[in-house]
Amino acid sequence: MSDAATLKLGVPSKGRLMEKTFDWFGARGVTLRRTGAEREYAGAVEGVDGLELVLLSAGEIPRELAAGRIHLGVTGTDLIREKLAAWEMQVAELAPMGFGHADLVMAVPQCWVDVETLDDLDAVAAQFRKTHGFRLRIATKYHRLVRNFLKDQGVADYQLVDSQGATEGTVKHETAEMVADITSTGDTLRANHLKVLSDGVVHKSQATLLKSRKADWDGGRREILRALETALRTADE
Amino acid sequence: MTQKPEVRAEAARLQAFFAASGAQVVDADILQPAETLLDLYGEDIRARAYVTNDPLRGEQMLRPDFTVPVVQMHMDSGASPARYVYSGEVFRRQEEDTDRATEFFQVGYEIFDGANPAASDAEVFALFQEVLSPLGLRAATGDIGILKAAVEGLATSEARRAALLRHIWRPHRFRTLLDRFGGRTPVASSRAKLLKNLEDTEAQDLIKDAGRVIGLRRPSEIIARLETLQEDAKEPNLSETEVELLETIMRLRETAPNVLEALRDIAIDLPSISNAVGQLSARLDALAELGVDVDSLDFETSYGRSTMEYYDGFVFGFYVHGRPDLPPVATGGRYDALTQVLGQGKSIPAVGGVVRPGLTWKMREGAL
Fold first, then answer.
1. What is the model's pTM?
2. Where does the chain bind L-histidine (chain B) (predicted)?
3. Which of B34, B95, B127, B300 would staple B59 via disulfide (CB 3.0–4.6 Å)?
4. What is the tally of structural domains in chain A?
5. Which among A110, A150, A153 is the nearest to B210, CB-wise?
6. pLDDT tens digits for A44-97?
7. Structural domain contains residue B177
């Protein structure tokens, strides 16, 4: 057992998301930094006693929060909703952080001049299935989000095909008819001759500070969270 | 899961009850080919069923229900008419509600007999009501065939009727379509612009100008849909009267005889529902003959629309009073449409239902 309870804060271990997270906390009087060698995922915190920095891949943070192995975490709301069933029962959103903006959108080939809305897409899905004998394929890695969205919207006769990378290329290679993918500017979609449906925004994501509902909050950890929240609130006022 | 032997015994008791009425006992594999289920139910089934992989047989699903294997077995056997009973575990992923069971027993009874649909409907319902009667459940009934017949009779294009029929089981999209066909929502500006462009530009050129042609959906398919859109733009709106009749039908919720009377009035303005209303009337007579108290039976025209895809006629469910958190104890209905999809053209009139012994046992024990 360690001497005193610590509160584990999971932060993306590299890239712009890490830097922006460090900046966000820094602007609020909480200094996060990496320590040790370049490739060593160790970190240090100044400004709130008992807060421990854990550097993780952004994609693993939802799972670690749900398992309660970290108390707090920074990741995109898209990953939380995609990776955690009934996410609201497992984590709580403490603060949207104002960066890492990305939209999960439904995009179809630009040459589909007859398709601008989900209503069109649904009609085309019926036509496609009738013509080709199988359901219209949507390439994505966001299965849960896309499936729930299309169910709510009442779109039928489609199927999801898994694509973990280079999703925009699947249409050209005829392994999918359209995509549901993350975009911030739409440039990659346009470069691949795709366009976003006017009502095809599935989810607007941004980096968010989250709290685990499953972690151990006893042993003084609640007090540490309160100290952190006070620091964050004071800076925002 | 400690109550399993008791639930198993309860399932055996229920199965014996249905078998006593002359049904043949059948079983089905737990592992079902995912392809058939995906083709039938679409992507939604992935949220409800466990998927696993077999190195030789490909994607398999733990049976989410018995309907598909029982229908397939019946179609292969070719024997008709037939009555079947089965009992076993089904498996359901739960993405929203952690309290719902992911593995539970189901006992089912199915009739494949086209001779007298009203009598078959009544037979299934009366059997379920009889076996469940000591539990004091609330019975809900409906008939999706009435809305279907109403849509089929709308004075509009075949394409519009087909679009509405395709979404009978998706109330949200059905509503959107109805509002558009009825002129209640304006034509989307993007659509108006597209139709305007088509007036002086060839469809082929529109496609060429829009961007590189990629993907399996060919320009010929895009052109075909553009023609459909142009045709549809000429189609007059559904009359306010027809939309209102449809809405009245969807709202009907009363005792069965009162709904029947209301529907008979509506059939004067919308004669296409006459056969379906006649079917409802014949069913109520058949139910009364089997001793069901039809006068107090609840009937809701929209019942089962969002939860029972492919049910296209009589539908029913039995619920625990005051416990909306619990799943229904039993559900069932007529699913001719499903046999049509599975039979690839061949279809068999089919009606049946399932009951959850896990729930009936708990109620009998006073544990609910």
1. 0.88
2. 65-67, 92, 106, 110, 305, 310-311
3. B34
4. 2
5. A110
6. 899 899 999 999 998 899 999 999 999 999 999 999 999 998 899 999 999 999
7. no
Q: How far off is chain A from B347, nearest CA to CA, in Å?
A: 19
Domain co-membership, A83 together with A128? no
* Long-range contacts of B360-363, Cβ-Cβ distance < 8 Å, separation of 24 or more: B360/B10, B360/B14, B360/B132, B360/B135, B360/B329, B361/B3, B361/B6, B361/B7, B361/B10, B362/B3, B363/B135, B363/B320, B363/B329
**B176 touches A at CB < 8 Å:** yes
pLDDT tens per residue across span A6-48: 999 999 988 899 999 999 999 999 999 888 766 666 788 998 9
Range of the domain at A111: 102-205
Asked whether the beta carbons of residue A86 and residue B38 sit closer than 8 angstroms, the reply is no
**Mean pLDDT within A118-144:** 95
User: Is residue A223 pLDDT above 90, yes or no?
Assistant: yes
Our CA-based measurement puts residue A188 at a distance from the nearest CA of chain B, in whole angstroms, of 14
Q: Binding site for L-histidine: residue ranges of B?
A: 65-67, 92, 106, 110, 305, 310-311
Chain A residues in contact with B310 by the CB 8 A cut-off are none
Determine, for residues B222 and A85 on separate chains, whether the beta-carbon distance falls below 8 Å: no
Tokens of B348: 């068999």
ipTM field: 0.86
Q: How much is the pLDDT for B42?
A: 87
Same domain, yes or no: B221 and B108: no
Q: Do the chains contact at B98 and A86, CB–CB below 8 Å? A: yes
In this complex, the residue of A147, A156, A193 whose CB is nearest that of residue B214 is: A193
Considering only the beta carbons, identify the residue of B163, B188, B211 that sits closest to A111.
B211
The CATH code of the domain that includes A150 is: 3.40.190.10
The amino acid sitting at B118 is A
Same-domain status, B133 and B165: no
Please, what is the angle between helix B4-20 and helix B357-364, to 10°?
Answer: 100
What is the rounded distance in angstroms from the CA atom of residue B103 to the CA atom of residue B1?
A: 10
The neighbour count for residue B320, using CB atoms within 10 Å, is: 19
Look at chain B and report how many structural domains it folds into.
3
- Give B344's pLDDT tier (boundaries 50, 70, 90): confident
